[in-house]
Give the backbone structure.
Amino acid sequence: MQLEENKSLKSLNTFGIDAFAKYFVEINTIADAQTFFAEKKFDPEKKLILGGGSNLLFTKNYDGLVVKNSIEGIEITKEDDNHVWLKAKAGTIWHQLVLYAVANNWGGIENLSLIPGLCGAAPMQNIGAYGVELKDVFISLEALNLESNQIQIFNHADCEFGYRESVFKNKFKNQFLIVSITLKLNKKPVYNISYGAIQTTLEHNGIMEPTVKSISDAVIQIRSSKLPNPAELGNAGSFFKNPEIPKQQYEQLQLQYPLLPSYKGSIPNHVKIPAGWLIEQCGWKGKQIGHTGSHKYQALVLVNYGNATGDEIYKLAQDIIASVKEKFGVELTPEVNLV
């Protein structure tokens, strides 16, 4: 465990933004974390907990302490005839956890295959895809309180999960270092294949009877065809949340735009509509402005073509928000954390 100053974060965020941290430390064990924070030296500094760097945009250098969470490991803590309780340390790559579950035919997170990032960020964002969210399988997490230096347990209700939301993204932001998550997975899986292109992809692959493995493979295939690899083209996946609008507003929009897609919303009497479709209708898909732009295959993904600054990407996002608001009267909200 070594403290660094003026640390470049370019290789530690998937947008590839060359921002610098005033102070930087990488944590590999809970004991290391408690030893480091027990010194209280950095109490006055603002703090940023960094996982895989896949869901944030640096718009400037970070004038504080960046803590890289690299505590890794997976273990079974409990099981019965129907379920297995799987505990993953926060620094474990999320997709590795999914593949571990898939290899054992445990259902529940196969629809979340290939989502970038680490396990510790999963409850922060309440990650979700193809009709499944982390909250559907979440049991609890352990987190180090950076003020008291004590481990606290958060159950499902404590996390206050919402659509890409939790207490760790709001009132407890950067106050806790999540060290592990526990999920309850199904030994007798119930499949969710109605959302997006999963069903048609399975049929195209000749799969008549879905399995955990075939669904995971289909999701990987779909995501790989639409989303650019951050190692090749800087991006943070979906930049915006899919908006949920009142049903009445949706019905009015549908009269004007009959092809407007929709999904069941999480809010009563609301309808979820795909942000990517709205952005594409405003002419942004594949459009490049300077060193940034909207991806040619998925308008929801903003990309760094090599030399973009965080400010450039943020400006593009603001322009997209304004144009969607003007055309549809719908306000887009970034899913990506702005730093």
